[in-house]
Input
Amino acid sequence: MSGLVVTHIDHVSVLITDTARSRAFYGGVLGLREIPKPRTFDFVVLWYDLGGGHTLHLLLKPQRDTLSSRHFALRVPDAKAARELVRAHGVEILETGPIPLCDRFFVSDPDGNRIELIQWKEPYNPSLSGAAQLDL
Output
């Protein structure tokens, strides 16, 4: 039996509680471009174009999502410049464990959704940088 063919991640959805505050963060701080949601949607959702056919969907809900280590990652060409940009907006940065040939850090949006900003200096090569075995 053949497996499902997946070409790439299409979109990521996270919960938000305030559209103006989220627009200020995602559009203002991160500089993402908002695009219109589908005309058939009868609920509040902000869509952002991430390039390459990828989108971010911010779903308005009365309560924020439970805080956890769940996250999505945005690839950036220069992690150092990304750090400087988010710091200039007063956004707290969380540094994390290293990945070989990669520079990355985490931020949180106004609702506590975790976002990893990641720069791959070379494509990930599991044969060079991977663990000796898969987790059980």
